[in-house]
Amino acid sequence: MIRKHFAGFVASALAMAVTAQAFAGTVTTDGADIVVKTKGGLEVATTDKEFSFKLGGRIQADYSRFDGFYTNNGNTADAGYFRRAYLELGGVMYTDWAYQIAYDFSHNSGGDNRSEDGYFDEASLAYNGFKPVSIKIGRFDPEFGLEKATSSKWVTAQERNAAYDLVDWTNSHNGGLGIQASGNVGDSLYGSAGMFAKDATNQDKDGDSTKQFNLRAVFAPMHDSGNVLHFGVNYAQRDLSDTAFDGRIRSRLGMRGVSTDGGQDAGTNGNRLTLAGANNTPAGAYDTDKAWGLEAAFATGPFSVQGEYVKRTVEADGAAYKDIKADGYYGQVAYTITGEARGYKLGKFDSIKPQNKQIGAWEVFYRYDHLSADDDNGAFANVGDIEGKVHNVGLNWYANEAIKLSGVYVKANVENAKNAAGDDSGDGFVMRAQYVF
């Protein structure tokens, strides 16, 4: 006998153990019945939906080879690493409370300098009793952009667009905590607003953390799988006054293997494009960091097209420094050869589910990324705008709803910047095996 009020999700965990040991028969309770599901992870829930418990995760194993600008000497290097290795636990307690915990064993999915022992990518608690508004608190990524809203399991290319590198702080928790309110109006409008305290390594002179707020709004008059018309706008701002920080704006140009946080990479020969800013930027140099973003998408049947534009301004504090400005965009087209449509939930794309269990679903795509920055300070005072351009051509095979195999060819070109060997272009490919449970 399993009692429903035995601490909610603890009862669910016990139910799993009882079910696993049972040779025959049915698990019963003195309250609502319990349902156990094993498709897409292990889930236990009461039929009245008051409690639930789901254990899942994802593993993404990548291998890449690259040359030219991607390495300092221009010669070919390779990298093999776990891009993500998540164990995820989530569920519902007492109907209105939801929790989500995601631990990344690869310590390679966020920003730089993650713990070698992994870290909590998310640990949050949400209250949903004010439907359709949800209030979430804890560690989680701020919302900024369509590709970031879409799970890393189901973004089309292995790496999200390079333009995000210009505003990397906008949609990463950076080891901090936050509170966010989000909600929808009908099936076409979605919005969120959040406040975050983050950047433990970038505290001000008093030890006060960096404060940031984010806003996102989405209008989707067409919002069904294979029938999508999506528009969105984003804004983020953080306070850098009296704060010493790493002010470099850098990009891997779609090739994570040049410098990974976990696993093998190109080592000291890996080359990342620096577009603007400087490391060890002193306190008092800059005041406010602002970022805008626009997003749009359209899908009809197996065809989809999407794009985003971002703009950032780092405002100088005083006459000794000048503003740093950066902007970027991407455009992507994708087509599912086998006819399936990309899933869509208000504000984000979702998975492609194969119709034919034998051959799976096959998707081809092309994406163009463009990013540039203007910095008239220090080393960049006599250099024109530094630009990066990245072409991505790829193929995805959704073997089933749990396994996805991908390959992408990446071609990068830069302007007003070269590696140590004088290269301003580079080539590479990335292969990924993904397992989701």
UniProtKB/TrEMBL annotation:
The keyword Signal is assigned to this record: yes
Alphabetical UniProt keywords: Signal
Protein's name in the database: Porin
Signal peptide as annotated in the record: 1-24
Entry superkingdom: Bacteria
Claim: Signal is one of the keywords in the record: yes
One family name in Pfam for this protein: Porin_O_P
